[in-house]
Amino acid sequence: MDGRAAHSDSKRRGLVLAVLEYASPTTVRPKVDYPLSVKEALQVAWDRPYQDPCKVLDYVAEVINGLFDEWHNDMGQLAAWTMVLQSSGWGKSRTMRELATKGFYVVYVSFLKIGSTGIPDRSAVAQQLISSKMSNDPHAVAAWVLAILTQIKEKSPEEWMKEQSEPHFGEPVAKSYLKLRGEVLEEVRVSKPGPGQDWDGVKLTHWIRKTANKTFVPDKKIIVCMDKVSSWFGQVAGSFLTCRRFFSCIPRNLKVFGLVADTAGKLGLVIPPQMQERSSSSTRFFEPIWVVGSLWWDFEQAKKLMSLQLKKGSDQP
Question: What band does 56 get if pLDDT is binned at 50, 70 and 90?
Answer without folding.
Answer: confident
